[in-house]
Amino acid sequence: MIHIATGPCLEPRFKKWLGEKYLTTDLFNPHAMVTMNITNIEYPDQSFDIIYCSHVLEHVQDGKKEIRKFSRVLKDNGWSILLVPIYAEKTFEDPSKIEPAERLKAFGQEDHVRRYGQDYINILQEIGFRVEVT
Questions:
Q1: How far apart are CA 58 and CA 65, in angstroms?
Q2: I need a labelling partner for 84 at 20 to 30 A (CA). Which of 43, 63, 68, 107 fits?
Q3: Comparing C-alpha atoms, which of 1, 50, 2, 43 is closest to residue 26?
């Protein structure tokens, strides 16, 4: 399992359940096992049984490209939890919004680059994920 943008809440539980099969990665957290930006996933195809990524994709410039990378490193029989905040019916992106104040107004947070909508399910499916909403 790869846990992207790890945090103190779930990490101890996952580590206890999975032991050495658990890998944490984060760009900013010095306690992560691997420092990695999801824009540069340097693992071979089909490396992971599980991918857990919570509230990261709304921060990266090309969300679809990063989701494709997840699909590449996920084993055929693997599964993932790719959580994003859902704010609207349709996903909204505007690359011209680069100033924090503009992003806050457009996307709800200064460091977000898009506002995901209910169509997030369609985005995942178009890339090849089978989606179950629970």
A1: 12
A2: 43
A3: 2
Interval 17-33 mean pLDDT: 93
Residue 20 CB coordination number (10 Å): 6
pLDDT at 134 over 90: no
Strands 74-83 and 86-88: unpaired
Q: What residue has token string 């984060």?
A: 26
Q: How far apart are CA 47 and CA 76, in angstroms?
A: 10
Distances (CA, A) of 87 to 92, 96, 126: 10, 20, 20
80 by DSSP, 3-state: which?
Answer: strand
Amino acid at residue number 80: S
Q: Which amino acid is at 121?
A: I
CA–CA distance, 97 with 105 (Å, rounded to integer): 10
